[in-house]
Amino acid sequence: IAKTRAEKTKEYYIKMGGKSPQKEQTFQQAQELQKILGDDFVVAVGMRYWHPFIEEAVEKLLKEKVQKIILLPLYPHYSKTTTGSSFKEFERIYKKKGINIPVAKINSYHNHPLFIKAWVEKIKQDIGESYKDFYLLFSAHSLPEKLIKEGDPYKNQIEETVNLIMEHFPENRHSIAYQSRVSPVKWLEPFTDEEIKRLGKEGIKKLSVIPVSFVSEHSETLYELDIQYGELAKEVGITEYKRVGTLRNQPLFIEALKDLVLKEV
């Protein structure tokens, strides 16, 4: 991935200030979760493609002599390409090290009441008092359509999340679109940029984009949504463009994570 996309993404990171805050924000989430879980728990961060890798997190947990490992993905919606891939990597390490500790896996939490409530609060807070005047465009990371046809639940879970959120916004119009496609195969549609163009043609003037599949900030939000699509919105006649922030360490979101963990103890 690094070899094929380095030159293209270099420009993104320059415009974002030189780095992605994702790692820092992930550690903040872990720290907040550790605080509310207390000393009976050890929260360790394990990443799929950079330090600390999942193996490093496992080593930390083994040193702490934990009695059970709970895998809590920071992907609210399950896909075999994201959560599934991370679980597979954990299983590889588990076998390699000959670990014999019980493991619980949290597959998804796309419809958890506190997760939904966190989004509702975040949307109202970031748009402001005039939130009822905005068209709400939910943007999720895209996936190859082939995976959905093979039974991946990702798209259905995204739609369920949005439907549950929209129960709290009966006066707003909304739609779902998909961003960050990276290969020539057929991906989930409509694409976020095409949907913004459509809304501009339709005469929408106030648009809020909600990154519903992300829980921290990175190039897909700070560059793609804020810069690329912010400029596109102006070009197509949208006069107010507000991008709702990711949940990060929003208290209700951290409470949702705590509840998920406690249910597995």
Summarize the structure.
With 265 residues, the protein is an alpha/beta fold.
How would you portray this structure in words?
The chain folds into 2 domains: 2-109 and 250-262, 3-Layer(aba) Sandwich (Rossmann fold); 116-243, Rossmann fold. It has helices at residues 2-15, 22-37, 54-63, 83-97, 113-127, 145-149, 154-166, 192-202, 219-235, 251-262; strands at residues 69-71, 103-105, 135-141, 174-179, 206-210, 240-243. The mean pLDDT is 95. The protein is built from 10 helices and 6 strands, in the order H-H-H-E-H-E-H-E-H-H-E-H-E-H-E-H. It has 265 residues and is an alpha/beta fold. A 4-stranded parallel beta sheet has the order 4-3-5-6, with helices on both faces. The longest helix is centred in the last third of the chain and has 17 residues, at 219-235.
Q: Which strand order do you get reading across the main beta sheet?
A: 4-3-5-6
- The tally of strands reads 6
CA-atom Rg in angstroms: 19 Å
Helix content: 40-55%
Remind me, CATH topology of the largest domain?
A: Rossmann fold
Text of the CATH class of the largest domain = Alpha Beta
Q: Mind summarizing the main beta sheet?
A: 4 strands, parallel
| Unreliable stretches | none
Query: How far apart lie the N and C ends?
Result: 37 Å
- Total domains: 2
How does the helix and strand content classify structurally?
alpha/beta
Number of helices: 10
What's the average pLDDT?
Answer: 95
Beta content comes to: 5-15%
Identify the CATH architecture of the largest domain: 3-Layer(aba) Sandwich
Order of helices and strands: HHHEHEHEHHEHEHEH
Shape: globular
